[in-house]
Design brief:
Helix content: 40-55%
Strand content: 15-25%
Low-confidence stretches: none
Length: 113
Amino acid sequence: GHTTAHAIEPGSNLSHGECVLLGLLLEGKLALRHTSCDEAFEERLFSLCRAALGELPALPGLKEAARLALSDKKNTSAGEVTLTVPTALGKYELLRLPFEEYARELAELWEEL
């Protein structure tokens, strides 16, 4: 969840840990959409993150904040966001999305949480 966490953190008053938990929630949802991840694992991950966070904070401007993900060290292709998404216990995959798709989906997924 660090790539998305680093996009969220500068515009919020949340701790780094809270941003990472939010990043895990959102990147886990992206994993469900774009990989063949273990759905039971993702549900457990979501449950743990939600329990640790309590009430979800407001995140205005999430689509605009997503631009900060482009400066993450993994993102070397122009206009593309690379994420390390959790897919099963102890397993992760690299997920590459065009920036516009990443930003749009973050905003959609936030509304679903």
